Amino acid sequence: MKKQLYPAIEPFASGYLETGDGHQVYFEQVGSPNGIPVVFLHGGPGSSCKDHHRCFFNPEKYHIILIDQRGAGRSTPLAKLRHNTTNHLLQDMEAIRQQLAIDKWLLFGGSWGATLALLYAETYANRTAGLIVRGTFLAREKDADWLLKDGASRLFPEAWQRFNQHISTNERKDTLAAYHLRLNIDDDEVRQDATREWDAWGGAVVLGEDFDAIELEGDVPETAIAQAQIETHYAKNKYFIEENQLLANVAHLQNLPCTIIHGKQDFMCPIESSFALSQLLPDASFIPLANSNHLAHGDEMVDALVNAADVFAEEYGALLSKQQ
Predict the structure, then answer these.
(1) What is the largest CA-CA distance in the chain?
(2) 75 is catalytic
(3) If 111 and its partner were Cys, which of 19, 43, 116, 130 is the partner (CB 3.0–4.6 Å)?
């Protein structure tokens, strides 16, 4: 029988990290205060944690920490780009860990969340208990080009045509720069239109034939505009990550338990990235899923993620018992 999400649960505590540079980073705690610490890292950049993200973990065994990254979700100010870089996000994670007096925690993230998990573990290996990553995004030039230059455009030519028709012929030399400009212009209608088209392209790549662009009609919420602004901000700056940095520093992860899960139908972040990572981590568990896409949804994907967390809890708990 496939595993399902654990029942809905409310936080036992929530609050904000005062960063000292104008950002307030929201985080919440769920499950058992004495359980195995795990931090949930959402995607994007610029997305946020959702209620169901609390439910990948057994609340009796895990102390679950969920963080809305800078400028996103419940963190404030919304969409603030100043002092918003990858290094800032890693510093926020480390500050929250220290504030909660956590020695080590499991890192659990998908897509951009997987990127952060890998970066954090490579920087703070001694504060990392293990990793469970999904739909890995390695932030290499070819990974960014796949979505915004040449790659997914050949799989979804009609959606790509619509995406490019929103900007002028001359601007198509740098689609990312054109959208970044529109998303940050002082004109709400222009920002809404750009966000709608940005989301339509992403939706088409993630969902394929299941995507319905009609769902994006009407007013675009500020949170959606903020996410698009942050996504283009990070992409424009090459995610503030050196080329091939994640794979170059993977030796720091060799002694950490690691599970790598990736859907074979993932056309946002093709499975090659997780395969490349697994080749450098021979002791990691690499789990390709035949029928799953980029989302942490669907019976097959949910079963794999919940099972990975359950297995880690059993094995890590046994290890801690031996050490005591």
Answers:
(1) 66
(2) no
(3) 43
